[in-house]
Specification:
alpha+beta, Jelly Rolls, eight-stranded mixed sheet, three-stranded antiparallel sheet, 7 helices, 19% strand, globular, binds fe (ii) ion
Length: 325
Amino acid sequence: MRARGGCLADGVLGASPLIPVDGPRSVDTSAPTVTPIVTLGVEDWRPVIPAADTERYAHELEAGAVLVLPRLTFVFAPDETRFLNVRWSDGKAKNISLDGTSIRGAAGGADDLAALARMIGRFAADATALVTALFPRYAPWLKRARTSYRPHGAAGRAVSWRKDDTRLHVDAFPSRPTRGERILRVFCNVNPFGEERVWRVGEPFEAMARRLLPAVRPMIPGEAACLSALHVTRGRRSEYDHMMLGLHDCAKSDLDYQRASPQREVRFAPGTTWICFSDQVMHAAASGQYMLEQTTHLPLDALYEPRSSPLAILERISGRPLVAA
Ligand SMILES: [Fe+2]
C-alpha cells in the first residue's frame, strides 16, 4: 500500500533539478497574486506588542502572509559557534531535530550533544515566546512540536523529487496526520558567513488547490485504517491529510507548475527571523545553509478566521467534511 497521498501524475520524475528563478529580489507587498510579505520591526524574542497590532499580525498570518523580522536573530553563545558546522549531522537525517529532550540526526560525544540540545532548546523557548507575544490569542492553544537545526545547504543534496524542498509546496506530514490543525513555523537564518536563505513563495492556497486538486487521486476505502494498523501513520489519516499530501506531491511533480505558476523570490539575510503557516504558504527553499526552525501546531478554534484555513478551503471546494468526528 502507498504511504503517500497520491498525485495522479506522480512517479514521473526522478531527478531533482534546481529550478531557475526570475523575479523581484526585494521584500515587498505589492503583488496580490502571490504570497504577501509583511515586515515587522521586532527586535526581541519577548516583545511587548500593542493589542491592536497583535490582532493585525494574526489576520495577516491567517490570510497567508509571511511575516519577516529582519532585526530579530538568534545569538549563539561563544561555545556554541562550533555547532555551525555540518560535522554535527549524522549524515543520514535531513536535519538535526529536538523532540522534547531527545535529539536526533546528530553525531558527537554525549557532552557535545547535550550542549547542542540545550542550544536548540533555547531557540525553541525563544520561538515559542515570540509566537506567544505576537499572537496572544493563540497562546493557550499552542502545541509545540519538533525543533530543527539545519546545518546542511538547502539545495544540492541528492533527494527524491518528493523530498526536494527546492520545489514549491505546502507542508504535509506523511506519518503524522494533523486532521486540519495548523502548522505554524518560525525560521531563523543563522548563517555565520553572510549567506542569505532564499525562498520562492507561490500563489495563495485556494488558487493552488483549485488548480491542482483535480489531479489528486481519491482516497481508497480502508486506506486510512490500513496505514494506521501498519503504523505507517501515527493515528488515523483523514481525507484532509490525504488531500494535503496529494497537493504537496502534485505541486512538486509538476515542472510546468514549478516554472509557470505565480511566484516571487524572497531573500532572508543572516540574522533574519520569519513566520508563516507552512501548510498554507506555497514555499520553496532555493538556497541557504544553517537555519533553525520551530514547528507548532494550532487547532482551528485558536484562529481569528478559521474560514481561511486549508481545511475550510478544501471543504468548500470539495463540498463535504474532510475530517471525520
Ligand atoms: Fe516546506
